[in-house]
Amino acid sequence: MVISAVFIADGQRVVTASFDKTARVWNVDGSGTPVVLRGHEDEVISAVFNADGQRVVTASGDNTARVWAISAQALQQSLRAAAADCLSPEVRRAYLDEIDEAARKGYESCERSYGRTPFYPEVDPP
């Protein structure tokens, strides 16, 4: 059951608070899949956007409030912080069907995006 629903200032999205311990961010036009914000241990009593629409704050019956980044840029930063592994060229070739040069460049680009130097272990000849 939805407890509350609040529109963002530009009217393009709405955030809902629910008894199922989640908040959801919906596109008003019905497109896409709603972003589900999980983490509370009790019903989410309220959810609102901040002034620039980049974050949502939720309040819960578990006596906590949380701030959630919902912009694409903020979500990418969160994903990068949570998953800092880059696929090796070998894995990129096998699973992404990339040719050697594209696999190497993709791996190097990923490593550099984390401020790391790409590492190529030396392989001893058989």
Automatic annotation (TrEMBL):
> Looking at the keywords, is Metal-binding present?
no
Keyword list (alphabetical) reads: Repeat, WD repeat
The keyword Repeat appears for this protein: yes
List, alphabetically, the InterPro entries matched.
Answer: WD40/YVTN_repeat-like_dom_sf, WD40_repeat_CS, WD40_repeat_dom_sf, WD40_rpt
List residue spans for each WD repeat.
1-29, 37-78
For this entry, the protein name equals Uncharacterized protein
Question: What species is this protein from?
Answer: Sorangium cellulosum
